[in-house]
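Checklist before submission:
- one chain only
- standard amino acids only
- sequence pasted in full

Submission:
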Amino acid sequence: MKKLTVTDKTKCMACLECVRACSMAFYKVFDPDKSCIQIVEGKDGNPKTNVCIQCGKCEKACPHGAITQNAKGVYMISKKLCTGCGECVAVCPMKVMVKTEDSEVTSKCIACGICAKACPMDILAVVEK
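Returned file contents:
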């Protein structure tokens, strides 16, 4: 299974370069609300990096069959089938599915690695498990 992972949870400096890279790739604008990776405050007060864990809850919640798992284990959204209903966003345990007012469809991490390349702390990696 291919997925994005955080290799060292203690080194995130909350610089948001990963967030910037993701929102720029999907939406061509830097907007943290349009990123499929989120930096939040952890229980200990330190930055916590939330990434898609490819759990499949989004697929099960989609009433239109717009989310399917590809051969590498990544859940993908069909822009042709997605109605933007937001059911998948509501069930995402990591809160990294994106549905914005200016987009008709939802977006999610596709384990492309753009965020990992942008991370100056080198704590993100796309791995095959």
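Reviewer check: The chain has a mean pLDDT of 96.
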